[in-house]
Design goal:
The protein is an alpha+beta fold. Helix content is 20%, strand content 38%. It is elongated and about 80 Å long.
Length: 486
């Protein structure tokens, strides 16, 4: 979404709550257009240009096959805002080949992208540079790690673009790693690129080197607005704000006495118009006044993560495993549409719905969510049984948290000793995940230093923990990535 030539876009938005409620037909070919900026070094001096980046996807990774190919078309049209006579037009069609590697609680996708067609024209300083596509090279190789709740990715790109301007030949080389993640509450991508520009055959031969670090972030924040002291049916409302921002830093590292300090080091920014959404106002929750989880429960009702009739919601009641899984599926936007469609279509009424767990029939109210969580490798159950009505224990809940994040490796060895006083009561299969959750700051233990692993989780505690997970995904995870970038 920021291109692969050292530029930066505003990034595309994350799904909103209304997107889950209003279903639109998906198209096989999808095009998005983003505001875009790039620094052009082809003349030996940095020239900042701005315009648009259009990405047309002609396919994607197929969920039902283990390998395949698809095409994407990147079209960039930018110009110097100070003089419209300087511009760049680039159109490149990528063919991406991929294959999948499936592991416990995650699926990895390996991708290689190369250009099928590449055209580019740069008009700058009264000159026109045309891409020599026969000599130009581009390759991008990536690995995407699909955990139940977060998609991580990292890879490397390398490009060698040859340009012709009469007798002058300019070669622009760009290479470096890219990495990032995407999940329902925030996402980010960073590229750490090194560039070399060489010119021969012109008025004089020259060479330039430097670094470019483009990055983009998108996050959701939640704010509460109290209704003024007026006759009104609503006490207050929650507003969810979508923030997008792209930024770029560049530094020319080679010696160029003809360039000013400002030209040798600079930055670009592409802020986006923030999108906001008013969420539903939770009602009939006055009985929560003063409860430690009052705000957490109201937030989850507002975000449609909890939907139990408030009349029957008992905050101190044990949280059933099935309802806990349902809440997490909604919190992580795990798709269940396919299963729900099968249940409501006329043709499929005659078909037998798959039943993974002997105690979860297709008639169970949480069947779609349990099946979706199983498909996402979030849950496994106990052999052939899931025990949907059994209260979930604290250690079970924490293990699912870490599986959502896909960060089990932070637990070090399979059975570490955790820092909790009651470590001996933690099941061996849960120790690694609880240690990881502790390292992430998701769990801390009570004032006595205990985690109480076998205790049942109340609905209020489940709401507080789920909201803590969302806050981590909104802010803390993004902050950790940003700390590495600056």
């Amino acid at each position: 979404e920021i291109g692969y030539f050292g530029g930066i876009s505003e990034g595309y938005r994350l799904p909103q709550t209304i997107d889950q409620k209003v279903v639109t037909k998906s198209k096989k070919s999808k095009t998005i257009e983003l505001n875009y900026k790039e620094v052009v070094f082809i003349t030996g001096k940095p020239v900042e240009m701005e315009g648009t980046l259009s990405i047309q996807s002609k396919g994607r990774v197929d969920d039902d096959v283990d390998n395949g190919t698809y095409d994407e078309v990147y079209t960039i049209k930018i110009e110097n805002p100070l003089t419209k006579e300087e511009s760049l037009e680039r159109k490149i069609t990528f063919e991406t080949r991929y294959y999948k590697v499936k592991q416990d609680h995650m699926t990895q996708v390996i991708k290689d992208s190369t250009p099928k067609k590449w055209t580019e024209t740069v008009r700058i300083n009264g000159k026109q540079y045309t891409l020599d596509s026969d000599k130009s090279r581009f390759i991008k190789s990536m690995i995407e790690d699909y955990t139940p709740g977060v998609q991580y990715y990292s890879g490397k790109l390398s490009t060698e673009a040859h340009y012709i301007n009469g007798d002058e030949r300019v070669v622009v080389c760009l290479e470096g790693p890219l990495y990032g993640y995407e999940q329902p509450w925030s996402k980010t991508e960073t590229q750490d690129l090194q560039f070399i520009v060489k010119s021969q055959g012109g008025e004089k031969n020259w060479e330039m080197a430097g670094t470019i670090t483009p990055s983009v972030i998108t996050k959701k924040t939640l704010k509460y607005y109290q209704t003024p002291n007026l006759p009104h049916s609503l006490e207050g409302t929650y507003e969810e704000i979508m923030e997008n921002h792209g930024g770029l830093l560049y530094t020319i590292t080679s010696h160029h006495p003809d360039l000013s300090p400002k030209q040798k080091k600079g930055s670009l920014s592409v802020p986006s118009f923030n999108i906001f959404e008013i969420l539903k106002a939770p009602k009939n929750l006055d009985f929560l006044k003063g409860h430690f989880a009052e705000e957490d429960i109201k937030k989850l009702y507002s975000m449609n993560i909890l939907d139990e009739n408030p009349v029957f919601f008992k905050p101190n009641q044990a949280m059933p495993r099935s309802q806990y899984v349902k809440a997490l599926c909604r919190a992580m936007n795990i798709p269940i549409e396919e299963i729900e469609t099968k249940k409501t279509s006329r043709r499929s009424k005659e078909q037998v719905q798959p039943q993974i767990f002997a105690d979860v029939s297709p008639n169970h109210p949480e069947y779609p969510y349990i099946m979706a969580a199983h498909k996402a490798q979030l849950i496994q159950g106990d052999g052939a049984y899931f025990y949907p009505e059994r209260p979930i224990t604290r250690e079970e809940a924490f293990v699912i948290f870490v599986r959502i994040l896909g960060l089990e490796r932070l637990g070090l060895d399979p059975t570490p000793r955790t820092p909790f006083v009651d470590d001996a009561y933690i099941a061996p299969w849960a120790k690694r995940d609880l240690y990881a959750a502790y390292n992430l700051g998701l769990i801390k233990g009570n004032p006595e230093g205990k985690i109480l692993p076998k205790n049942w989780l109340s609905k209020a505690e489940a709401a507080a923990l789920t909201n803590r997970l969302i806050d981590y995904l909104r802010s803390d995870m993004l902050r950790d990535y940003r700390a590495l970038q600056y």
